[in-house]
Structures are given as C-alpha cells and as structure tokens.
Specification:
Elements (H helix, E strand, L loop, with lengths): L1 E3 H5 L14 H20 L5 E3 L7 H8 L10 E3 L2 H9 L8 H11 L10 E3 L5 H14 L5 H5 L1
Parallel strand pairs: 1-2, 3-4
Helix pairs in contact: 2-3, 4-5
Length: 152
C-alpha cells in the first residue's frame, strides 16, 4: 500500500496551511487518520509505505494510533539540499506558487532531527536507485525501527 499523506489533508473542507500554529489540531487529526489507515492495512497483511511529511514531533501521535495493531514501524527521513528539495516540490503537478514558503519551513524543521538523526538519508548526491538500495539495506538491519522509541 502506498499511503500518500497529502491526500488526507485534502479531506478538510476548510484547510489551514499546515505550517501555521493554528493548524495543530488539523494536523493532529490528519496524522491520527494516516496512522489508523496505515495500521489497518498493515494488520491485514499489506506492506505499507507512508509517503509524506511526518516530523518527529508527531511520532508519539502516530505511534499511539498504530500501537494496538502491533505492526513494526520504521521511520526514514529522505533529505536533499534546499535547492533540490524546492525544485522537486515545485515540479509536482499540484504545486502552487506559495508552496515555496511551506517547503522552506519544513526543510528547516527537518534540518536537525535530534534523537532521530540516524533515520535521515541524504538523497541529494545519488540517483534514486542508490537511495532505494541504501534504505532497503539499512531497513533490513533495523536501522530505522521505532520499536525502541515505542517501548521507551
């Protein structure tokens, strides 16, 4: 299953730009829904890939929703230099001119992951196939597992 987090934000009839402080409740609801849907698919035997922006500040919310299912959760942050991140984001078909501000804000928010820094993978200097191979190899070793975070 490819769970695209952006789709969940389109469900809101009056969305608030996610980087605004007053969007906290909206963002929390979206993260809970993303986690619940992902857990349901995973518990049904599907391999699930959650594709989107989930900052470490939302991991407790995500994990609390997933915990009852008992599924394994890995956390990987794909990082590229700001210029490349902007180019990728603005090349998306649904990109809007004001997305530049959001991308810059989120790029900065992910610059220091604190306890989750080991979950970051630099994607700027390598082709997609190399990134995929690196992530798969490290995931197989358990480098991205959140089981210790969930238990701690």
């Amino acid at each position: 299953m490819h769970v695209v987090t952006d789709a969940f934000y389109r469900f809101f009839s009056h969305p608030i730009v996610p980087i605004r402080p007053e969007a906290r409740d909206q963002n929390t609801a979206a993260i809970r829904a993303i986690a619940a849907a992902s857990a349901a698919f995973a518990a049904s035997g599907c391999a699930v890939f959650v594709d989107g922006v989930i900052g470490p500040w939302f991991l407790p919310t995500f994990l609390a929703e997933v915990a009852p299912s008992g599924v394994r959760v890995d956390y990987v942050v794909l990082r590229a230099p700001l210029a490349e991140t902007l180019a990728r984001a603005m090349a998306r078909a649904e990109a809007r001119a004001d997305d530049d501000v959001i991308v810059r804000h989120m790029h900065s928010a992910f610059a220091d992951l604190g306890a989750f820094e080991a979950h970051a993978v630099d994607t700027g200097a390598q082709p997609l196939a190399a990134t995929r191979e690196l992530v798969e190899r490290r995931r197989a070793r358990g480098d991205f597992s959140l089981s210790a975070f969930r238990e701690g």
